[in-house]
Specification:
heterodimer; A: 5-stranded mixed sheet; 15% strand; B: alpha+beta; 5-stranded antiparallel sheet; 4-stranded antiparallel sheet; 24% strand
């Protein structure tokens, strides 16, 4: 089947199988910043923002995501113009192997959209679907705190 | 090769019409169908455009539209009725990205263990409202016992006739937050001074999917709080379990009984009046 998707503000027409999940369709069409982890909705590596809500793209049928706004980590900043969250992750050492980082940043992005100055508990809760096997989360939480402070001071 | 046809209805009537077709299944947006696969079906009805994404109260009756996600329902309920057992349960299920997809209607269709909905449904004595071939409203036990009733039928909402003004306690047995719970304990209580007016207790995850602990409820209903210490709450809170990754039947039965006792005491002896 064919469908229209709005990826990082760009309209795309893609073909996909009726039972394809969004993760596969994104990666087959070059969006490899969306990572394939467990494939069961447990690790969160494949998270994207679908119509404003963080979702595991491995648990969303591509057919269900047609005509919707999909945001990947490439849509919030670039190496030349990074989002404050991306800078904060680098500066605090919250990136080690980097596999979980795109989804972790999107989870934090959704949190800060909703709660600009979150408590540590709110940060932990917002990241509860994202596993990191390297950092132990301490640096990640520090990065979210730092980004929140910087983004608030720019408001 | 079986090519599954997707349908995107915009009204309940359209959705019901599609569901009347052979081997056609509704999809609210959650994970059950992704996990089980759709290759054995000829059609999938995507419900996202059907206007069932609401939560409303009218004279104490709570109605949650089938398309409300767990995240939305938990947030709406937390704002309206802080401490409501449904908000606690739905807000702690699975993880943030999954709560953003799992809908109450989809969860009520299968009541998978990871939904966290079944315990609160049991104690709140909620009803499942449907349209289509078997239109009507169903209590939980009727619904669970009669799976074929769902064929050609659309869940439109969950109705809770007596959802508020309870003190509640909810417990889910997990190692880490996003685990599937090995069991859940749901407790509602109403007191008048030191008198226990009404207690409802449900345990999910045992050999029965959900059990109302009626012996415990009967022992507490109408009793004075001072009598609670003389009751063997653990014994009355004991249920049978099968073997699970989380532990042996004996272990799970024992810790579930402990948590039943804790939740009941928490609800009965809590000072602040939450919902």
């Amino acid at each position: 089947m064919k469908g229209t998707f709005f990826i990082n503000g760009r309209k795309e027409e893609w073909s996909f199988a009726p039972d394809a999940v969004l993760l596969d369709v994104l990666r087959e069409n070059g969006r490899t910043e969306v990572h394939r982890g467990c494939g069961e909705g447990a690790c969160g590596s494949c998270a994207v923002v679908l119509d404003g809500a963080l979702v595991n793209s491995c648990q969303v049928f591509a057919a269900s995501a047609q005509e919707k706004e999909i945001l990947t980590v490439a849509g919030i900043g670039s190496i030349h113009s990074p989002h404050p969250l991306q800078s904060a992750f680098v500066e605090t050492g919250a990136v080690q192997c980097g596999f979980c980082t795109p989804a972790m940043i999107l989870a934090a992005y959704c949190l800060l959209k909703k709660i600009p100055n979150p408590t540590d508990d709110e940060i932990r809760r917002a990241l509860d679907g994202n596993s990191c096997r390297c950092t132990g989360y301490v640096k990640i939480i520090e990065a979210v705190r730092l980004a929140a402070r910087r983004m608030s001071s720019h408001d | 090769m079986n090519m599954v046809q997707w349908y995107f209805p915009e009204t309940v009537d359209e959705a019901v019409a599609f569901l009347g077709r052979e081997r056609t299944i509704p999809h609210g947006g959650g994970t059950s169908l992704v996990k089980s696969g759709i290759s054995s079906y000829s059609g999938v009805v995507d419900l996202a455009r059907v206007p069932l994404n609401y939560l409303k109260t009218d004279r104490g009756i709570l109605e949650i539209g089938a398309n409300q996600t767990f995240a939305s329902a938990a947030e709406n309920l937390s704002n309206l009725y802080p401490g409501c057992i449904l908000a606690s349960a739905l807000g702690s299920a699975a993880s943030t990205p999954l709560r953003n997809r799992i809908t109450v209607g989809g969860s009520a269709s299968l009541f998978p263990l990871w939904s966290d909905l079944i315990g609160p449904m049991a104690v709140l004595e909620g009803e499942i409202c449907t349209e289509g071939k078997n239109a009507g409203s169903f209590d939980l036990s009727t619904w669970l016992a009669n799976r074929p009733v769902q064929k050609g039928t659309l869940i439109t909402s969950l109705l809770f006739p007596d959802a508020f003004d309870w003190v509640s306690a909810y417990y889910r047995e997990v190692r880490v937050g996003f685990d599937y719970p090995a069991f859940t304990v749901s407790v509602l209580a109403r007191k008048n001074g030191s008198m226990i007016e009404r207690v409802r207790v449900a345990l999910s995850g045992g050999t029965d999917r959900v059990t109302r602990l009626t012996e415990l409820e009967e022992a507490l209903n109408g009793a004075d709080l001072s009598k609670v210490s003389s009751l063997d709450l653990r014994k009355m809170g004991t249920a049978r379990f099968g073997r699970k990754p989380a532990g042996s039947p004996e272990y799970l039965s024992e810790i579930a009984a402990v948590q039943v006792e804790r939740c009941v005491k928490s609800a009965l002896f809590r000072e602040e009046e939450t919902r």
